[in-house]
């Protein structure tokens, strides 16, 4: 089969790789239909992640092709959503909804696991990992597929940010960041009953419009101290009850912490790069820092009905659509911020 | 009247200062009966806080001597507990129990406010600040007074650490630190239903015994990586559901973060000195950092019955008792770790 391989800074190629097969009785093999490119794939693309020769991609949906003898929850032919990390479903972390810490779990593309931007993938612990889009395993409506694809990572990640921030009905929420996670954090804040959602840190008109479409009431185009002053003005000095940090850089983190009202929570969901937080300034304000890697598998069952019913349309953040052969161009466009997030149609015959 | 004044590194003197009087209609004047020396007073004592000439002390109890015309909740003669910060009781923060962020509040000994180690104090916003020990304002039993004194700061502070950590019944809690806040955090963890409380970071036999008396199941005498290994062993590698950081140094903070299980919370309640937390190592474990300055006024009403009923005896952490004239020696003994925490009987005629 063919799959995307990172071959060095700003070089992604489709290459021939071994076909996956059932290795453990709990495995399934999934034929990938659509994949997305994640902001974290871009870190790799820019040479700040795994080394050359690494398979890439971890957001994907498709059809079960084969299952091991111990798999009970899915059958060949089922249309499934694949979370961005596989998990056993049995350990103490999986049982309490923290599948991101599963003791047997792992990341796609690491330790001999297949990755998500390819024609197929062997899925370890199929019962603990895969989620059928519809109860009978049938194929969902075509128009829903991009939003279902967003359930593999970005929609749950935005939801994780909002949930961990403890948003209460009526709260003022500031989302820092204008990427796909940012707009999904806006959406999740809305779903959790936020009274007012401000999206901060973007002067990009298209992204501002998208944030509004996802539920932002106000846009603060400034960054840094200017953003702090803008939020001060918008809130009459009260600042935010919850701040969702969706960038992960030292500058955005520092801004997020300054936006928090006394007693507020700052929730982050992107891997922080080089971020050290000085504690003393938070002490007098009782500001909580929470978040971390999202246990997507825990949230998919609860967010799935919102997508199927058309209440949430996270797929609207997929602003570019590419054929499988055009996957390198998807990376180029995201890297140059020409598109927010890329959807790739995987061609089984390519 | 006479009051303690910080006069330079390791120099505290009792000096003549102006008698307090009612200045605002919401003021009260309190005659101080007992005061305690706080770990944060020691930072000042060691030259790492306010400058020479500063009045010191913020943990005190006593009797209302006079009230302004707008004070309705206390009368002259009432025996009261004074929280370590005064607060208006009316602003949006006071109303939601975050009196530590009161917009009109302040610290004892700063901005012309009296401090707590003296014969009297003018109490701004008496209705928002003072709490009668007994509903009728009468004097409590003598034996209860040290524990009531601990309600002004250290018991609520330990409780704040435990409460913010979100301790659930059965949880494994590690308290880092062997000071008065540490043992009170042990006590509070117990009150909130912790299944197992481990006190870490002290090889001081007397303090270990005190921690056990306050409810610690186990003592880890090691610090740093050795403490991490010891807790790993005690918990079969599972680590703590909640870690209460009660020291505030970079080393103790680093240890506290390492002791947290995936999904756990690290709660800190002492002003962190020079602590910067790198975020990346917390990301994969979803570790929350919370805490901050305790809104003592919010907790006094709920902890008071536990003290009056003898369920909680936080006063047992007051290991040294000093006359008013011996107050400088109280500082010397705490500084040299000869006593954990000093109680001072204030003599109205000294």
UniProtKB/TrEMBL annotation, chains A, B:
Keywords: Metal-binding, Oxidoreductase, Zinc. Pfam families: ADH_N, ADH_zinc_N. Residues 25-123 form the Alcohol dehydrogenase-like N-terminal domain. It comes from the Bacteria. PROSITE patterns: ADH_ZINC. One of its GO terms (molecular function) is zinc ion binding. Gene3D superfamilies: Medium-chain alcohol dehydrogenases, catalytic domain, NAD(P)-binding Rossmann-like Domain. Residues 180-307 form the Alcohol dehydrogenase-like C-terminal domain. This is Alcohol dehydrogenase catalytic domain-containing protein. It comes from Bifidobacterium avesanii. The lineage of its organism: Bacteria, Bacillati, Actinomycetota, Actinomycetes, Bifidobacteriales.
